[in-house]
Fold this sequence. Notes:
There is one protein chain. This protein has helices at residues 22-40, 51-57, 62-75, 79-95, 103-126. By secondary structure, it is mostly helical. α3 (62-75) runs parallel beside α5 (103-126) and α4 (79-95) packs across α5 (103-126). The longest helix has 24 residues, at 103-126. The two termini are 22 Å apart.
Amino acid sequence: MDILLSLQSVNVNRSSTTQESSNDIRKRVEKARVHQYERYQQEVSNAKVPFEILVETSALTTEQKKTLTQISSKQNWSNRVQIKIIRLARTISDLAGEERIADQAIWEAMTLRRWEQNKQMAIAREK
């Protein structure tokens, strides 16, 4: 699953103190990566760790499982897609400094998946 994000235009003539700098983002990513290495006790990221280990170290709550199951059923998502959503949610939570997978991270990961699906359908209609 590719992750596609929409970007907002930036006014380069106006300085903004609310935006995160590239250096700050790099530091946050490096910190999340180190945390993943410590969690799995090897140099492996959320994208590559065996799913059994991911679930063992970052189990979803009952409510999160229920939500993911309901949305997956409505969207006809395969188990493979659901696993990718869990991996992405774990990474989103890591970047936010969360110890557990946050509910917001699950929603964000599912939203990114739905956005990607809608974009692919729109491209297919144009052909």
